[in-house]
Amino acid sequence: MAEGPALEELIRLLARLPGLGPRSARRAVLQLMKRRDHLLEPLIARLREVADTVKSCATCGNFDTADPCAVCADPRRDPGLVCVVEDVADLWAMERAQVFRGRYHVLGGALSALDGIGPDDLAIPGLVARIASGGVAEVILATNATVDGQTTAHYISERLRPYRVAVTRLARGVPVGGELDYMDDGTIATALRARKPVEA
Length: 200
Fold this sequence. Notes:
Layout lengths: L4 H10 L7 H13 L1 H18 L1 E2 L6 E2 L5 H4 L4 E8 L2 H10 L4 E5 L17 H9 L5 E4 L5 H13 L6 E4 L15 H9 L2 E2 L3
Parallel strand pairs: 3-4, 3-5, 5-6
Antiparallel strand pairs: 1-2, 6-7
Helix pairs in contact: 1-2, 2-3, 5-8
């Protein structure tokens, strides 16, 4: 190993991140080492700070240093409007569009028979309990337009059927197979505005 065991381990760990393969991770490590004072040391400090202070919001599942998170604690947001997303990255994508003024619920993934992910592996029971406690008028299902996302949305709509809550889905401005995190703000905004009730 020309890099040495410590650097090779760092490259291996970075290569496990989405969007980074072994070559990209190797280039990133080289840049970090070349710019130790300006990149490596601040990155180490920030990673330690994030590890020590950032947690998952007990209400919605967003990441923040406070619990409840800034979104849930914002009194200007409508608590009667809950947008259900698969992942925190999807929540952040919705926030970038700057058109949604309600609250969120992060599932932590999507139902997948192939991967063995069932309802109890996601935050679906927490969502049902949240709706059952009252105060929510509309649930917007913003799961990804994939087979698993569609299955998840259908399952949630069935679970929420006994409650007096409107269940809507993002309009088809979101392409099939698309993921919110990779969409432009205009597409997300259009899809949110054109949402429609879930058909039984």
